[in-house]
Amino acid sequence: MSDESWIDLQRHPSTRTDAVRAIQVAVRRSSAELQLTFRLDGDIPRIRVAPTTTPRFARDLWQHTCFEAFIAIDAQSAYHEFNFAPSSEWTVYAFRGYRDGVPVADETLNPHIATRSTGGQLALDAAVPLDRLSAIHARALLRIGLSAVVETIDGLSYWALRHPKDKPDFHNADGFTLSLEPPGPEE
Questions:
Q1: Which residues of the chain have pLDDT under 50?
Q2: Count of domains forming the chain
Q3: Residue 118: exposure state from Cβ atoms within 10 A (0-12, 13-18, ≥19)
Q4: Does 1 reside within a domain?
Q5: pLDDT at 2
Q6: Is the model's pTM score more than 0.90?
């Protein structure tokens, strides 16, 4: 996604870390999927990342280093949360409203995840199958929240497009600030 523009995530002011300098995300949408590239710049040896494993559904990924996408159809309170771990593990949650939902262990929602790391950068590519969430998702105006939880040797830090509360809360719809128009008929 080298032709995409990068969106900066902001660290929640209640959390501190000097191991992470910046987190940026590039986003591209087609009718079938949402493609995301998360790029973390920092002192990678100080960041705790689970080793790569077989891609699989796993719970509680947000308790360690993971990247997240919250996907809502504009003007609806329902949303989905995708967690992407550098280990290739993933979780999908379906919510009817604010924090009112359950994990969805549906292999057809399995996002493709690829991770790369160097001494100063950790990058994770994820492809979310929008057309498998619902037929409406493929052609609707979407509100997106992008976030990251980073576990370092010093603790956790929380990153998002916008932090609407005093405490980190990625589920707050006021943080779903990226609007993605439906793709054109040829996409």
A1: 1-2
A2: 1
A3: exposed
A4: no
A5: 42
A6: yes
